[in-house]
């Protein structure tokens, strides 16, 4: 039986997240595991009068490439990907990994080499996004691999993801518009602040957001969504932070990560698991040791830790910091081949803005109307 939630998620992607228009060159990417959603998005785009192009792949190809490609192949930047970045109007990346640990035996140095090869194109893509020339969204399609990481059955994991995407609401598009409206209160509050201080077990860090802009994330770039973020002043971060949750990236799980900052730069780092990989990531380039993002998660339907940063960073009651590339639209200037989100549970913590407590134990204070739960 077809899952009606897939149809509703396709509607959100095409009608709300990307606002696909007649004539748009529209790329749809994902693995064959996301075939139901790929088909639903494709059909919806056709009805909109767009020109959809499906770029589907098979699980295991990235592992095969990173294991066997020579240096020239590792450094090759696809002409098709260049065309999409430079000419297309919209794209959806349907994340649908079969095995999240598939890259665990790949030499990290080869992954770093590949990232460096794509750094300029990623910066170009980010520039088109910032200027509104390329509308881009990342949506997670539930797979057995993601469910296993979350220690859930696929059915329970699907329920979690679709609920967090608001597709179980009578009108998901209207629900996301309401999220946007109410999150704007938080953004407006933070946009007039200069200094933030975060305090939690194993954490005390300060950073400047003076002259930076907070962004309201309400389903236009990520699904599920629910966060407000900015790019901190690059040389302002001082203190230390303990990341509550492990993160799986490039096939490796880094657990118990701790970072120490001085003058905006990571000067010390440790992890209980895969510490060597953490250091390799930090050594990707100079920008990898500086923060590209500070964010507060706001999605009340993301109720379980899943080992997937795309989901976990949205959990209401958490913050996340991203090492590496910053967001020009937020005022950030840091550049790096990585953008690595790490999540810290703040349900036993506090955030102060210009010395005033405004967030405690996962709740906003001072009349900010959050958490949001649609009727």
The separation of the N and C termini measures 28 Å
Q: Structural class, judged by helices and strands?
A: alpha+beta
Oligomeric nature of the chains: single chain
- The backbone outline, from C-alpha atoms, is globular
Radius of gyration: 20 Å
Q: What's the pLDDT, averaged over the residues?
A: 93
Number of helices: 11
- Show unreliable segments: none
How many structurally independent domains? 2
Across the major sheet, the strand order is 14-13-10-6-5-18-19-20
Largest sheet: 8 strands, antiparallel
Give the total of beta strands. Answer: 20
Per DSSP, what share of the residues sits in E-state strands of 2 or more residues?
25-35%
- Percent of residues in helices comes to 25-40%
Draw up the topology in text:
Blueprint: H1 4-17, E1 25-31, H2 35-47, E2 51-57, H3 61-68, H4 71-74, H5 79-87, E3 90-95, H6 108-130, E4 135-140, H7 144-149, H8 154-164, H9 172-190, E5 195-200, E6 203-208, E7 215-217, E8 222-223, E9 227-230, E10 238-242, E11 247-249, E12 252-254, E13 258-262, E14 265-270, H10 275-282, E15 291-297, H11 309-312, E16 318-324, E17 339-345, E18 350-353, E19 356-360, E20 363-364
Helix pairs in contact: 1-2
Description:
The chain is an alpha+beta fold. It folds into 2 domains: 4-141, Thermophilic metalloprotease-like (3-Layer(aba) Sandwich), CATH 3.40.1830; 172-364, no CATH class. It is 32% helix and 27% strand. The chain has 11 helices and 20 strands. The protein has helices at 4-17, 35-47, 61-68, 71-74, 79-87, 108-130, 144-149, 154-164, 172-190, 275-282, 309-312, and strands at 25-31, 51-57, 90-95, 135-140, 195-200, 203-208, 215-217, 222-223, 227-230, 238-242, 247-249, 252-254, 258-262, 265-270, 291-297, 318-324, 339-345, 350-353, 356-360, 363-364. Strands 14-13-10-6-5-18-19-20 form an 8-stranded antiparallel β-sheet, covered by helices on one side. Helix 1 (4-17) packs across helix 2. It is globular and about 50 Å long. The two termini are 28 Å apart.
